[in-house]
Specification:
Spore Coat Polysaccharide Biosynthesis Protein SpsA, Chain A; 10 helices; 50% helix
Length: 325
Amino acid sequence: MQKPKLIIVVPCYNEQEMLDYTTRELSAVIARLKNAGKIGEGKILYVDDGSKDTTWSLIEKHSKEYEEVCGLKLAHNVGHQNALWAGLEWASVNGDMSVSIDADLQDDTNCIDEMVDLYNKGIDIVYGVRKERKTDSVFKRQTALFFYRLVRSMGEDMIYNHADFRLMSQRALKILMAYPERNIFLRGIVPKIGLSTACVYYDRKERIAGESKYPFSKMMALAMDGITSFSLRPLQCISIAGICMILLSFIAIIYVLFTYNFGHVAWGWSSILISIWLIGGAMLLSLGVIGEYVGKIYREVKRRPRYFVEKIVDGDKEETLGKDW
């Protein structure tokens, strides 16, 4: 029986400080798996998401030095989720299974062995799940906890403390590629695939070089995408909020009439309190939530391509694409 081919997909954006270390570590993982007879072939697929530093030059260099290294250079920056999608799409055609991992290798590469073992036992999707968040600040830890609880309260099935470190079989990847949406949130899409799943648990390490590519603003944007891409609850909450505003308005009216009868109210104060603060605030909040959904519809109906590949490099072979764009 032919042994499976593993492709490790690594999205990269300005990761020049990490690539030497990452390549050595992942090459050692592939060599270990091959020597143990768990895989027949392994590839490290770097996806350069429009980096502005020397990331692509290093990928080309490593591709010539390491036979297992190859790379996709995207024509421009499309964001982490789209870059990861590009790598997974390539892996769905060229491999039997794929492991996605960030270039900083804060996720434990030793878990890849356990993931492959589970794949060889027939598991299609294996999630890498953090045991704890000791390396995170208190603020990041609490906001992450709040996000997962919020998403679950809206009826969505997400794996707690799981990011994008996972193994997927070719069968699972083919199903994933059938999802047509442009507002991609893989942590929410993958659990919807079904098939057989398992989890491996690990302790996340500190980043050894470079800076995080997910500051607070990007984390908030990702969280908003996650909520609005998979749940209609925020829209439903608008109706509930409207009912609550009406009830609060009645309470405010009773309070205003009470104070008016005792002569403790300024002329015009009641109308400002009820109309501006309650109704105005509720309308602005409602419009903001609806605007998020309208914006997503706007992006979806245009059906723009998720990405364009400018170059593909694999060893001494390099192909430049898109010359006729």
